[in-house]
Specification:
disordered N terminus; single chain; about 65% helix; globular; mainly alpha; about 400 residues
């Protein structure tokens, strides 16, 4: 498809656009944190209860950004190339160092974290457990096996049913993300060799049948039982929908006229890709596309403000570390006389006031002293390994 051929400078990359996406990412991370906090404090709220949908939108954003920031000519992408290796190196050093550090913390404090997690669940059962008679959670995070070690260090744990919830962290999505990174260069090749509409149909069919074949949260599937959608076929359509939005944005940057029929196919492919997603995620996708294309005048500047950009910078740390703060704090609160007698909204506010400063401060420290140095290191070694042109 000749319309995919652009050089690395032919797509918009203005700071306001990227800043608004940082703000969008910040909102998603806070949504996940607040949703987990609401569950832990026994507060039921429809919007916060839908926080798992934020992870689906993270996947859309990831697919978009991978295309938007791709350094190669899309028309010349090769799966086995130095540029692809550099891509893998940078993504590894972006994701892995912080995750490995938090895994060490989970290993060191695993039994205590499991005890506090179960005590909170028993004192304030989540909605899905309130109908279970004699609910008695028994969390077993077995960190001592070599199998656990190599599956998590390699990010392969998301491919193994039953391993997707084997740490206190919301890390199942990291395995999913790494699976996407692995196939991303291949998807770019397929997009120029196979009609996008066909790819969209394939990923949509995979997403539709994945819960039936491999399970859907508490419900086992025909072939296996994944407690989370940590296997790529579940959500490849969300990543691909984000890629299509970025490809459309590249089209808008062309100075020469583009094929109208190709644009229609791109739009149809995006519609097909998002069909298996829930209605709130589809609405979130449309909102994401609107702010990406600057179609909502007030929202894009708002999301580009410095507070949102700051939260966007530390959003990965917020997403990954907040559980290690939320459950110990809420556990201590449940041991405090009178806390459980408060109204749910009061318990949530008290928990929020105590955890939010710690989550933000810890996330900043992790970003400043773990994420940033390794991001720079990944860029340095990838630049050093580039072959002369």
């Amino acid at each position: 498809m000749k319309n995919l051929r652009t050089d690395s400078t032919s797509h918009p990359s203005t700071s306001s656009h990227l800043n608004s996406l940082d703000g969008f990412r910040a909102c998603l991370a806070l949504w996940v944190y607040l949703g987990h906090l609401a569950n832990a404090s026994g507060f039921s709220n429809r919007l916060l209860g839908m926080h798992p949908l934020a992870v689906d939108l993270f996947m859309v954003l990831s697919g978009f950004l991978m295309v938007h920031t791709w350094k190669q000519d899309l028309h010349q992408t090769k799966f086995l190339s130095q540029s692809t290796l550099n891509f893998y190196l940078m993504r590894f050093f972006r994701i892995a160092p912080l995750y490995y550090l938090l895994l060490i913390i989970c290993y060191a404090f695993g039994p205590s974290l499991a005890m506090m997690h179960d005590a909170v669940l028993k004192a304030l059962p989540p909605p899905w457990a309130q109908s279970i008679a004699n609910f008695d959670p028994q969390t077993d995070w077995n960190f001592d096996s070599f199998r656990w070690f190599y599956l998590h260090v390699s990010f392969l744990f998301g491919l193994v049913p039953g391993m997707e919830n084997s740490t206190p962290l919301p890390d199942w999505s990291l395995s999913l993300e790494m699976q996407f990174y692995f196939v991303f260069p291949l998807l770019l090749i397929l997009v120029r060799k196979i009609p996008m509409l066909l790819i969209a149909i394939v990923v949509a069919v995979l997403a539709f049948y994945a819960p039936k074949l491999w399970g859907n949260y508490l419900d086992p599937g025909i072939l296996s039982h994944f407690g989370q959608p940590s296997f790529l076929p579940y959500r490849l359509n969300a990543f691909f929908a984000g890629m299509l939005a970025a490809l459309w944005l590249r089209q808008l940057a062309f100075t020469q006229p583009t094929n109208r029929f190709h644009k229609i196919l791109l739009l149809l492919a995006a519609c097909i890709s998002i069909l298996p997603l829930s209605k709130p995620v589809i609405l979130g996708y449309l909102f994401f596309v609107a702010i990406s294309f600057k179609r909502i005048p007030l929202i894009s500047p708002l999301l580009s403000l410095k507070p949102f950009r700051f939260l966007g910078d530390i959003s990965y740390s917020i997403y990954l570390c907040h559980i290690l703060i939320v459950y110990p704090i809420v556990y201590k609160l449940t041991q405090t006389p009178g806390f459980l007698e408060h109204e749910p909204i009061e318990r949530f506010i008290i928990s929020l006031l105590l955890t939010l400063p710690l989550v933000i401060f810890s996330s900043y420290i992790l970003y400043r002293f773990v994420e940033l140095p390794f991001i720079r290191f990944g860029k340095k070694i990838s630049q050093g390994s580039r072959q002369p042109t």
